[in-house]
Structure formats: C-alpha cells, structure tokens
Amino acid sequence: MRTSPTMTDDDDDYKAAVAPERRVTFKPQTRSSPLPELRPGSPGNLEPREREAPGVPGGPGEASRAVAPREEQRAAVRDSVREFGFNMVASDAISLDRSIADLRHDECKYWHYDEALPPASVVIVFHNEGWSTLLRTVHSVVKRTPARYLAELVLIDDFSSKEHLKGRLDDYVAERWNGLVTVVRNERREGLIQSRSIGARKATRGQVLVYLDAHCEVGINWYPPLAAPIAHDRTTSTVPLIDYINGMDYTMEPQQGGDDDGFARGAWDWSLLWKRIPLSERERARRKHKTEPYRSPAMAGGLFAIDRDFFFELGLYDPGLQIWGGENFEISYKIWQCGGTLLFVPCSRVGHIYRLEGWAGNPPPPSVGPAPALQNYVRVVEVWWDDYRDYFYASRPETQALPYGDVSALHRFRREHNCKSFSWFMENIAYDVLQFYPLPPKNVDWGEIRGKKSNFCIDSMGHNNGGLVELGPCHGLGGNQLFRLNDMNQLMQHDQCLTQGGKEGTGVTIVHCDRTEFNDWSFRMGEGRFVHSPSGRCLDRSETLQQVFLALCNPTSLNQRWEINHIKF
User: Fold this and answer.
1) The Ricin B lectin domain covers which part of the protein (predicted)?
2) DSSP 522-551
C-alpha cells in the first residue's frame, strides 16, 4: 500500500447554510449582500415580467417539446450521434433561442434578491462540439441573463479540428455579440480541466466565474439564486440543479434519483465514481424554506459558480490533473476542507445534454498516458483523503503502482491554509456517505479473470443493478474486466457484487451491495475454480456464446478453470 503524509486538524435557516465559520487565511469579505427573502404571493423582484417568447413560434423543440426524426433522416442521425454524441439533425432544426419548460418549484418565483449582485464571467470549454448545441448554450445564457449581470462569456476552444469551429465561429460571435462573447483558442490540446483554469485567467470582467459545459441550456431566472450565496459569502461555491436534456429528441425533465422534491446531493463510492444521494434530514432541518440552497459534499463538476478571487486563492485546479476526471472531487474537497462551503441551489436550474450510446468519443492526445483519469484519481486521494486513501486502493488496486507526479506543493497548500483533515470532512459534511457506500473490505486478490488457456475474460460490459456479466476478449486495460475478491468472500467491481441471477438462475449478475451482502464466492487457487457457495456450483463459460454462468462443478472441465492476472499500466 502506498504511504503518504497524513494531514491532521491543528443554524437553522438560510443564513446557517451560507455563512459557516471562517477558518482560513483568505481575503476578508469587503461587502456582504443581504440574503434573499421569500415573500409568498409577491412575485420576485428579478423574475421575468413576461412569459418567455419562443425562438420560432410553433417551431421544433419549443417549450422543450420532443423533436422526432423522419425515417429518411435516421442514417444521418446515427452518423451525428457517432460523431458528436447527440442527434444533431434534431438539434440543427431547433431554434438557437428556443423557449424551454420552467422546471422550478413554484416557490422559486417569490424570492427577492439584492439587485446589486456581482456580474458573471461565464466560461465554456469545448472540443469538437456540434455547432447548434454549442451555440444554443451561448444563446440561452445571453437570452436569460439580465445584461447587468453578464460581464462576458468566454469560449475556450481546446484545440478543435472541426472546420465549423474555426473562422465561421469567430465571425458569428463577432457579428452577433460585439465583444460580449469572445473565443480563446488553445495552441495545443489541454483537456477540460486545465482549459477551465485557462478560462479563469482569461475571464477578467466578472466577479463571479460560472462554468458551464458546452451543451447546456440555462433555465428561467437562473443567475440570481446562483450568485446570491456568493455575494453574501465569497467563500461559497454554488451549483445549479442539473436537468436532463434528452440528446435524441431534446425534451427536458428533472434529473432522477433525488427525494420527493427532486433534490439530491453529490457523493462518491470508494473507487471515486460519482454518485447521487438523497437530501438528508439534517440538511432539511437547516433550512426554513423548501427551495433554499443546501449543502452537498461534492459537485458533478460540469456546472458551478465561484468567486473569481476565491478560486485563485484556492489555486484553481491542480495543474497536474490531465484532460478529464476527478477534478470535480478535487475542487469539492478543497472548498470544504479549506474553509469554504458548497451549496446546491434549487431555484437555479440548467439543462444538460448527456452523451448517447454510440458516441465515438474524443480520445486524449498521444502525449497523455494510458490512464489519465486514474492518475487524476490517485492525485486527488493522495492530497485530500489522508488515511482514507487505503480504501481507494482497495477499490482500485490496479492504481497502486501508477505514477501520479509531484504533489508536494498541494500538501504545502493544505498546511499553509490550515485545511481540515478528511476525517473532519467525513464527520461533518459527508457524514452519511458511508450509509450508502460502506468502506470496502481488504482484497484477497484482484485483476482480470481470464479463462485458463484462453484469451477470454469475464466482462461486466458496463452493466449494473442486475445486469448480466459476460465473456469478452481480454484487453488488459482493466475497466469492465477488472474484478476483486475480498476477505468478505465478495467478487466485486467498484461498489457492485457478482451473484447468482435469481434463486434458480444460472446466469451471473452484477448488483449494488454492501459488505454484508452476496458473500458468495471462494477461489480454489490450486484448482483455478470459483465456487458459488450458496448454490455449490462453479463458475463456467462458453466462449462460443461469450457467456458466463453457474454449472455443476466438474473437475475435468477446462471451462471452469480460471486465473486472476494483475493489470499493469
């Protein structure tokens, strides 16, 4: 197991949520805006006075209505999904200024805000993005943000190669917005993370930095509730509620997985995968009104706001993080452990298009190592998790020998800013994460599970929550082919266990589990056999059908013999 330095520790209403004890050495607050006030029956002072006009009356996608492709467009739709991850045929048919459904709780329309809110610099990073999805993001910000609050919108082009993102984009932006929107072009591929730090340096007009992904649509009156907590306490970072835009038909709906009001908090499992957990009773009790901001241990990372000076005082993103992955946790831990506050804001809503299955992706440049996201995760846990990092390595054993660079400057930052320990964070902020994602047991063995004298390995195929595991050609990259057998007799991948598919089933499924569930497996190393204890059957395979299943144990069957091989990057 790796060893690293360990760091140690040397409200009933909205005010309690947004004004925690200040603990560290950041610049003092020079002006604190008054908190918003809810006045039932009195429309909010910054609410639009008229209903939003459609981009094209009766046009495709207006009011977030579905856009269905015609039969003759299906091939073009498939091609666009492969290239961009979205149905660009439908997107291109929708007005860039389309109207959208207002998904806010009704109470949101009666909040009154300080009108002297700080202006925003909105930063959007893109790489080979589709034309209309990118431009609709920009149009929505300009359309739905009062001019006095939008200082600038900075587009960071992360070395795109698509022709429509070159001169055509420059001309469109210059002719339409007269300097309000600018394009900054990286001279090489920097990745999302470092491009966002570049954006912070380039965006100098606004006091608040707002980061948005390049395929979003901001909601009605989205900015005042997002900015108000920051105006009250500059060490607060805020996150809008993120609604789901269907990348095929462009309908919009609240994201699933929250409580009865649609509220959820950000969390993680111990392999550092993003998770959503319900709003706790403790957080509900801190608020007087349903739609007040609430604390969250972590953010998803794509959409958030932060005081510009505070972000610089935090050191922006770790400069050693590459491309994409883990940065949302790094900034979340840094904010909380170093004296700030992270709030989710129910009355600020932003729709986000999620990539569809079949997208070819944007591979990182060859100069980046084989596993940049895993390297990022290691840097994050080595800097912020203290002794909890051992649980990450139990969940991701393949990362134990992964080089992750020098993090001494980040440890020095923690010391100089008197940042709290991860134990403090777990006890005070992420106090219920363990209820949903218990600490993992120690591993007995781990790696790819390869058939004896075979080139086929067990593969989850990305399935979860009851999906079947299958057999696939061994690729040696880990991922969906990396499993671990722990001392609780669980055969696991991330936070999920392999088990029998139904009481009498022979299939093998993968399901979410805690350490007391599905303690089903033993590996008889001398025989190379996995035995499923409850059924007494052995793990078997058919390479012809590429299936994994349970069968009566047969000592002479080569298809029931396996080997566990560690993964090396």
Assistant:
1) 443-565
2) EEETTTTEEEETTTTEEEEEETTTTEEEEE
Give the chain's domain count.
Answer: 3
Are the C-beta atoms of residues 380 and 404 closer than 8 Å to each other?
Answer: no
Q: What angle do CA 227, 233, 235 make, to 5 degrees?
A: 95
Question: Is 516 part of any domain?
Answer: yes
Boundary-marking domain end, from 323, 353, 383? 353
Sequence-distant (6+) residues with CB within 8 A of 218 are 140, 141, 144, 145, 212, 240, 349, 350, 351
On whether residue 366 sits in a domain, the answer given is no
**109 and 245 belong to one structural domain:** yes
**298 occurs within a structural domain:** yes
Residues 109, 220: one domain? yes
Closest Cα to residue 66, out of 100, 97, 96? 100
Q: Minimal CA–CA distance to 90: which of 74, 69, 70?
A: 69
395 in the same domain as 420: yes
**Residue 8: per-residue pLDDT:** 45
The pLDDT tens digits for 410-446 are 999 999 999 999 999 999 999 999 999 999 999 999 9
DSSP 276-303: EEEPPHHHHHT-SSTTS-EE-SB--SSS
Domain coverage including residue 388: 372-436
CATH classification of the domain holding 389: 1.10.8.460
Find out whether 80 and 167 touch, Cβ atoms under 8 Å: no
Q: What per-residue string of b and e applies to 452-472 under the rule 16 or more CB within 10 Å gives b?
A: eebebbbbbbebeeebbbbbb
Contact by Cβ (8 Å): 125, 192: yes
Q: How far apart are CA 150 and CA 553, in angstroms?
A: 68
Backbone angles phi, psi at 276, to 5 degrees: -120, 135
Mean pLDDT of the 65-86 span? 94
CA–CA distance, 569 with 374 (Å, rounded to integer): 10
Q: Taking the C-alpha atoms of 184, 190, 195 and 201 in order, what is their torsion angle to the nearest 10 degrees? A: -70
Residue 364 lies in a domain: no
